[in-house]
Amino acid sequence: MTFRAVRADKTDAGQTVRFVDMEDADLMDGDVTIRVTHSTVNYKDGLALSGKSAIIRSFPMVLGVDLAGIVETSGRPDFAPGDEVILTGHGLSETHFGGYAERARVNGDWLVKLPTGLTRAEAMAIGTAGFTAMLALIALEQAGLEPSSGPALVTGAAGGVGSMAISLLADKGWTVVASTGRLAETGYLKSLGAAEVIDRATLSAPGRPLGKERWAAAIDSVGSTTLANALAQTRYGGAVAACGLAGGMDLPATVAPFILRGVSLLGIESVHCPAPRRLEAWRRLAADLDRAKLAAMTETIALDQVFEAGARIVKGETRGRLVVTIP
Ligand code: NDP
Question: pTM score > 0.85 for this model?
Answer without folding.
Answer: yes
